[in-house]
Amino acid sequence: MNAVQVAISDGLTIAKRNAIKIKRTPDLLGGVTLFPIVFVLLFAYVFGSMIDIPGMSYTEFMIPGVFVQTVVMSAQITGYTLVQDLQKGIFDRFRTLPMARSAVLTGQTFSDLLMNAGSLVVMAIMGLVVGWRVHSSPGEVALGFLMLLFFAYAFSWVTATVALLLRTPEVFNNVATLVTFPLVFLSNAFVDSARLPGPLRVVAEWNPVSTITQAARELFGNTNPALPVPDAWPLQHAVPVSLGWSVLILVVFAPLATRRYKRTVS
C-alpha cells in the first residue's frame, strides 16, 4: 500500500479503537445521548415560554440553534480525549508502532464525527417530539445535516490544536468553555440577532455560529417571512458562507494540529 492508503487504514483503526472506548465509557456515552435531550427540553419549555418569535413557534426557531450548539460543544470531546491520552502515555505507545503519524488525529476526529451524528439523530427525534417540523425537501434536509456534521468535523480540529497546546484536561476544559459559551450565546441561535444592541448585534451577525444556524434554518424550512431580512452579508448568503467557514477552519487548523502533534510526540 502507498502512504495515503496506509494513513487511511491506520486512521480507521484508531477510529475503531476510539469508538470502542466510547462504548465502554458511560460518561461519554451519556453525554452523546442525554445532553441533547436536556438541551432540547430546556430550551423548548423554559425559554420557549418567555421568548416570542413573530409568525412562528419558538421551537422551530431554536431547534437549529440547539443543533449548532451541540456540535460545537461536542467538538470539545476531541481535545479532551487527546489530552487524556497524552497524560496517560498513549501517544508514547503509538510512537513505537509502525503507523502513520496522522492516524491519531484523523482517527480521533472521525470517531467524534460519528458521535456527533448520533447526537444529531437524538436531537432530531426529541425535536419532533416537542413540536419541531421541517418544511423543505428531503434533499435540503439531508444537506442541512451534512452541513452541520461538516462544521462539527472542522471545529474538532480547532479543539485538537488547542488541546495539544495546553496538554492538561483541566486547563483545556476551562479554556474551551470560556471560548464556546460566548461563541454560541452571542449569536442568533436562541434569539433574533436584530434585537441585540448595536455592537453586540454586529458581532452576532458575523459570528460563524450565526451563519451556520441561519443556514440550517433555511435548509430545514424554519425561516419566518415576518422577520426582517438580515442586513449582514454572511446571513444573506448563509449556506455557501457556512460551507466556506468549514473549509477555511479545516484548511487552517488541520495542518496546525498535525504539526503540533508531531512536535508533541517527537
Descriptive overview:
This protein is an all-alpha fold. The protein has one domain. It is built from 12 helices and no strands. Helix 1 (3-23) crosses helix 6 (103-130). The model has no long low-confidence stretch (mean pLDDT 84).
- Tell me about the largest β-sheet: none
Assess the beta-strand content as a share of residues. Answer: under 5%
Q: Which structural class best describes the helix and strand composition? A: mainly alpha
How many domains, in number, for the residues? 1
SS field, number of helical segments: 12
Query: Which series of helices and strands comes N to C?
Result: HHHHHHHHHHHH
Anisotropy-based shape: elongated
- Unreliable stretches (pLDDT < 50, length at least 5) are none
Quaternary structure type? single chain
What's the end-to-end separation, in Å? 25 Å
Instruction: State Rg.
Output: 19 Å
Keywords:
elongated; 266 residues; mainly alpha; 12 helices
Secondary-structure map with pairings?
Elements: H1 3-23, H2 26-45, H3 58-74, H4 76-88, H5 90-95, H6 103-130, H7 138-166, H8 169-185, H9 198-205, H10 208-220, H11 233-236, H12 238-265
Helix pairs in contact: 1-6, 2-3, 2-6, 3-6, 3-7, 3-10, 4-6, 4-7, 4-8, 6-7, 7-8, 7-10, 7-12, 10-12
